[in-house]
Amino acid sequence: MTTQTPPIVHGEPGDAPATPPPPSARRSRRRGRNLAYWLIAPALVFMVLVHLIPTLGGLALSFKNINTFTFSRLFGAPWNGFHNYNAILFDDANPLHSGFVDAARNTLIYTAATVTGTLAGGLGIALLLARSFPGRRLVRTLMLAPYVVPSFVVATLWGFMWQSDSGIINKVLVDYLHLFHDRPTWLLGHNSLFAIIVPSIWRGIPLAMLIFLAGLETMPRELHEAAAIDGAGPWRRFRYITFPLLRPLIAVQLLFGVIYSAYQFTIPYVMLGSNPGSDADLIMTLIVRQSFSNNLIGFGAAASTLLMFVMLIWVAFWFRAFRRDLEMA
Amino acid sequence: MVGSRRMTNWGLNALTYGILIIMLAPIFWLVASSLQTRGQLASGRYDLLHPTVKAFSEMWSTVDFSKYLTNSIVICGISSVLATAFAASAGYALARLPFRGQKSFSAGVVGTQLVPGSMFLLPVFLGFIWLKQNTPIHLFDTQLGMILIYTAFFTPVAIWFMRYFFLAIPPELEEAAMVDGCTRFGAFWRIVLPSAAPGLAATFVYAFLLAWDELLFVTALTANRAETIPVGIHNFIGNYSEEYAQLMAAGVVSTIPVMLAFFATQRWLVQGLTAGAVKG
């Protein structure tokens, strides 16, 4: 289309020709609405087909007695109410229950540690980079690098670095710094959860740093200057000025960070394999293993629903806890 | 007093550079160890001054890395273009055109992020298998199937990105165009989209970054033909767990494209990434 006076725009059926303008206000509003529906249609179709319908399907599956992978059974499988949920949560003898409590505990620890570490690290670095110092722009750009390394590469790289014998981490800690007498095993047993938390924090810090930096830059200077004149030291200025103003940013990152970490799959799966053991098994790795290796689809669907339910509770709690910050933002 | 302030400043600068070195150390090690031999890595006798690219050439023959790379580029490229296109039109509607159901649509866009992938993975998997058995539509283990999934998958985030970029464009631009006889759609197509070009590029790169890194769905929905790089690396670890030099070389090759794309569009990407949090 290169003409200067556009003819009737395609994609607005049932509309009056676009010329001559101006149409009455009401008609143009209706036209705007029609156009809006055409504009959201493609996205909506895809979201309904891939997100909504399968999600409802997953919900339905969780109430069915289905433990084989056949589509015909999907509709034909008998309903059995909350049987799957009951088995997962309370029935010690049921295969659906095995490993669930461990995975739930590990996911809780992983999520809390990752989100806390990411936000604390991101805030600390942002405060350092908000100052002016030589090479500031370059340092800010370079700090972003870990965020751009894909998760599966992060997991591969750290999996190699954590190796007990040939890993660089033990080489530094044991051979150069002599911090340990024996070489620790990082990828087995009690250390394995720690081994997936550290890279997750490392990869998350740059994004948190960016968001905090953006917040620090919009912060009014006068407040700090006034407080400094009144004799408030740097700690008190941070405590009573900077931190309260950053609270909305912390809130938003908490909301999405918790959801993102609780649904994390790539890093543990690549670093520790499909069966990481009871010390580092997360809900997501357990769901995938039970559904695809053990064909316990009922487990996969019901545990996913439980996980989503917990996240909805978290969102509801979040709205209550941070209502004040939302109004501020 | 002045002296102590200078000391403090100097100390904080040193701390900043120290943290930067720690943050970059793993990336340095990724590149450095990909330029060593397997033996050097296993024995710990590194020779960083004499790098060798042997691991890179070996890696292509150890696993069919070119297959994974091609699949990743095709699947992620096409789905990111589609997601960006859908997001551009939907994001414009959200930013400029009030319509009935707008609130529900926005809530739905955010709501997609609340559902764990495993929840809709099972029905999608069953659906793909059923289509394969009963219809000529082949989505399981095909590039087309993964493109459909990823397009839907990353459209919501892309919508949020695009909405922000449209809100940043002054509405007077379109109004002027419409006074001159453009229709609403004409103004969007000819005036707004070109001014949002950096936003489109940033949205495309962000969707591409996310798709490039997706593992859960591609593991479940491919078997052999349409596998992407993350699956390839996972298979590699399963079969040749001791070939660390080659693994790191594969890691470097997988990181370079997204690194370049990220830093090429960094300015706008950073705006998009921070806007959601800062502006609420």
Would you write up a description of this structure?
The complex is a heterodimer of chains A (329) and B (280). Chain A is an all-alpha fold and 329 residues long. Chain A is 69% helix and 0% strand. Chain A is globular, with a radius of gyration of 26 Å. The model of chain A is unreliable at 1-21 (pLDDT under 50). Chain B is mainly α. Chain B has helices spanning 2-34, 38-43, 54-62, 65-96, 102-111, 117-134, 143-167, 172-179, 184-195, 197-212, 216-221, 229-239, 244-264, 266-278. Chain B is flat and about 70 Å long. The two termini of chain B are 42 Å apart. The mean pLDDT of chain B is 93. At the A-B interface, α1, α4, α5, α6 and α7 of A face α1, α2, α4, α5 and α6 of B.
Low-confidence stretches of chain A: 1-21
Regarding quaternary structure, what we see is: heterodimer
How many individual β-strands of chain A? 0
SS summary, helix count of chain B: 14
Largest sheet of chain B: none
Helix content of chain B: over 70%
| Sheet/helix structural class of chain A | mainly alpha
Shape of chain A: globular
Chain-wise SSE layout:
The complex is a heterodimer of chains A (329) and B (280).
Chain A: H1 25-62, H2 71-76, H3 83-90, H4 100-129, H5 136-143, H6 145-148, H7 151-161, H8 168-176, H9 191-217, H10 221-229, H11 234-262, H12 266-272, H13 283-293, H14 297-321, H15 323-328
Helix pairs in contact in A: 1-14, 4-9, 4-11, 7-9, 7-12, 9-11, 9-12, 11-14, 13-14
Chain B: H1 2-34, H2 38-43, H3 54-62, H4 65-96, H5 102-111, H6 117-134, H7 143-167, H8 172-179, H9 184-195, H10 197-212, H11 216-221, H12 229-239, H13 244-264, H14 266-278
Helix pairs in contact in B: 1-13, 3-13, 4-7, 4-10, 4-12, 7-10, 7-14, 8-9, 10-14, 12-13
Task: Name the features.
heterodimer; A: mainly alpha; globular; B: 280 residues; mainly alpha; 14 helices
